[in-house]
């Protein structure tokens, strides 16, 4: 049974066919034997009733023991009628010359030979041997056996083809990705293990490239999984154009691909291939209905034997290098270095802890003041997310927000931030802190959600906060990535009555022509541009240009990262509307912010509407403010 189990499928069916053939043949032989027995009995019974004695031209049934009797010309004799009457049917007559199979040594055989000499024409057959039955029935049985075997063989072949096709489908499903047709994770591990065996025996270089599409989850959540699948197929086809016959390109799942490079002439070839793939992906994808899409990727590189000794370790280290590439700005490649293993482990532990942070109430909002430069009035606050983990302590937003975006947790977390910020602002207004603005950041993934407008509407309705008090901050990159959808979403949000601000302006790649398309209210100058103000003339010129451009578009301008009175005064002279930074206060808990807001309001009131002064007694600058460059 074990040998049969291991036998190839086609051989198994031939074995089954052989057993079936001999089984059918055995059944036929047994049937023939049973028929011979039945025929013999029937013929004996017939002979007992029909054997006649010819006496004086009359036929009579024999009264004595059964024995062969001579007959006259049966065709014309009255005996025929008597035979029909006695038998109930036409009797079977056989020419004596045809009874050659009868043994001459038997009484019947000897009698037949004797009667032939006497001119007897025919005798009634009283029995047939098995040999006679077989000879007589052979054509019929042969045809039956042939038809049965033909049907069995045809059916077997059809079954073989069906089962083999089904096995191929199972193998395809088990080892290949159904969406792209590329090898899947299991087959990729197997091929990498074989490649490692070859390079160990023959020498040479081998590299593993871990490829992850940048911000693919945003695309998938925004346009639907069907559109995302189309993008993945297009990316797979494009990557295959750069693969050699000996290379293996596999899809590990989601937007992750793995490229196994065998027989490399030198280790640095892997970097050249990675950069070539990045350049290839920078070209827009031509999708259905004439759509063009730009897709970037981050690639991690692990080399054998320096970066791992087996398939699992190489892939794990290439994955760690890929995350390093993402941390370095995305759309780039990075080689594995040992410290990345610890970084990857820390990242995994942080991501696992973050999944329970919202449920365990580990997240909180801090608020940073926003000041109107013209009169020093604290007009509101920006809500900033903080995470205090029992396992990891205070985790900075620069660390956990990218984790939340990559893992998809940013959507429920962002929804909580929006609702909590609106609730807190409404509570402050009821307590007499009449904030004009509560600013909330929307991540690119959250902004591209289909239900973002409904989410904002529910937050306003649930908190009772007036819509004009809510300011949604959206990054420049999120607006420019999908301009048509962004424009429609902004128009719908504006219809609710909320205000829209472009966060970190100047760090992206937008143009004035594109910005004019959007329904915007405010530009926020990124704090990186304020670091050199007012000492650095280049930074001053850049900030001046942004302020002038915003004013030409009738947009409010807010400068982030204001830390010195000199920066505050210079911005006021340039015509900047608002500022935000450590000069006014660090992000603080809700209870502390209420007290801080009252203190800032008191300082502004004592100045009588003059230039806003920093809180906590920081004196205004005594020297003249720098002139406008």
UniProtKB/TrEMBL annotation:
GO terms for biological process: cellular response to nitric oxide. The chain crosses the membrane at residues 13-34, 140-163. It catalyses: 3',3'-c-di-GMP + H2O = 5'-phosphoguanylyl(3'->5')guanosine + H(+). One of its GO terms (cellular component) is plasma membrane. Its cofactor is Mg(2+). GO terms for molecular function: cyclic-guanylate-specific phosphodiesterase activity. Gene3D superfamilies: 3.30.70.270, EAL domain. It is found in: Cell inner membrane. Its main location: membrane. CDD domains: EAL (cd01948), GGDEF (cd01949). Residues 204-338 form the GGDEF domain. Keywords: c-di-GMP, Membrane, Transmembrane, Transmembrane helix. Residues 347-601 form the EAL domain. The keyword Transcription regulation does not apply. It comes from the Bacteria. Its EC number is 3.1.4.52. This is cyclic-guanylate-specific phosphodiesterase. InterPro entries: Biofilm_reg_signaling, EAL_dom, EAL_sf, GGDEF_dom, Nucleotide_cyclase, Rev_trsase/Diguanyl_cyclase.
